[in-house]
Amino acid sequence: MKTKERIIQFGEGGFLRGFVDYFFQKLNDKGLFEGSVVVVQPIKTGMCDMLKEQNCEYNLFLRGVDNGKVVDEHTHIDIISRCINPYKEYESYLDLAKNPDFRFIVSNTTEAGIVYEDDNKLTDSPANSFPAKLTALLYERFKERLSGFIILSCELIDHNGDELLKCCKQYAHRWELGEEFVKWLERENSFCSTLVDRIVTGFPGDEHKALEERIGQKDNMMDTAEIFHLWVIQGDHEDELPLQRAGFNVVWTDNVDPYKKRKVRILNGAHTSMVLAARMYGLETVGECMKDEKVVSILRKSVFEEIIPAIGDTEDNRNFGNAVFERFANPFIRHQLLSIALNSVSKFRARVLPTILEFKEQTGRYPNILSFSLAALIAFYKTDEANDSEEIIEFMKEASVADILKRADYWGEDISFLYDIVNTWFEKIEKDGVAACYDELLK
């Protein structure tokens, strides 16, 4: 399927190919949208050439558990019409701006992608940063007197659309492109902040040959992901991009923040609060955790009796919590606990600590399981398996619980007020082990 080109996509990695390209493919297949995708390689080294070798086609496998049933879905993706490497084909890249059929821009250039770099110039071919490349393209569009774009930023940073617009305006001023262009940027373009949620496991590695045999074709760009998906988009462009009509779990909203909070606190918070104790308990993967009766019971108590009550005990939040358990139990994903344990201090600060504080504010007491998880974090960092910055590892290994809790630079504030409950659990972990702590938590 190669139809009229309507979407410019910055990024050719596994995530966009397992998320938005799947949506665009299905929209076309259902006759709800007619348009193909042009992929732009956002950095110098990428996979454009590999995509081109396969006529920009690949196979996607979505696998997981949905409402208690195992799902294993295969889709042949041929929605991408071509792939442009602006480092080799800069004029072809700028020519995209001159095609009035283009209406959408999608991007996922990693968390570090939306950044303003002061030394980028309009005359660079191309500029280094993604916002600078985009500004150059938008300026060409402006000069052609064409309408703007609906821009869907999928980078994992807060208010990604707002931040992208801010960077583009900085380049417009830096490059002296004129106030009319700045006004056009704001008036004619919708920079939509979005929240994306799907675990994309990427190239299947050990399963590659078996999956090739299953579909009867070679594919070096094969992609895999879980079946669950959620895309929360600021604004409402359902009339032009009928994602809800196609049956997808897409939310158009004027505020992405509550959905971000739900994901970070329930999904990410459950991960972060579970894995370190589970690792010291002797488990290696999330799948093993979900098969262990004690770990699952404690996780369920923490999600439904501590996390969700703190952020709002609503039906939507409970449904999301139930979906998390199906996602964690996905038999097709082997998610290593040590992989999730990377940089646990900063993760705990963002994902778990706010819930502890809000729970205390609402109930007058600290949540027992989440407080235990902080003690487990401290105990884990005294092992040789911790993976964080050299300074944090060195300090945490030797420091007392009291000194660790005082580190406002780690936690955002001095959290010595947690000393009694955290130190009690820490001493029990050290004296009796994690299994005994699990028994105590389940009483």
The profile of the biggest β sheet is: 8 strands, mixed
| DSSP summary: helix tally | 21
Supply the CATH class of the largest domain: Alpha Beta
What is the helical fraction, as a range of percent? 40-55%
How would you characterize this protein structure?
The chain is of the alpha/beta class. The chain has 2 domains: 5-253, Rossmann fold (3-Layer(aba) Sandwich); 258-441, N-(1-d-carboxylethyl)-l-norvaline Dehydrogenase, domain 2 (Orthogonal Bundle). The chain has helices at residues 14-18, 20-29, 48-53, 90-95, 130-143, 160-174, 179-188, 208-215, 257-280, 286-291, 293-311, 315-328, 337-340, 344-351, 353-363, 368-380, 390-398, 401-405, 408-411, 419-432, 434-441; strands at 5-10, 36-40, 58-66, 69-77, 80-84, 104-107, 150-153, 190-197, 223-226, 230-234, 250-253. Helix 9 (257-280) packs antiparallel against helix 11, helix 9 (257-280) packs across helix 12 (315-328) and helix 11 (293-311) crosses helix 15 (353-363). The mean pLDDT is 96.
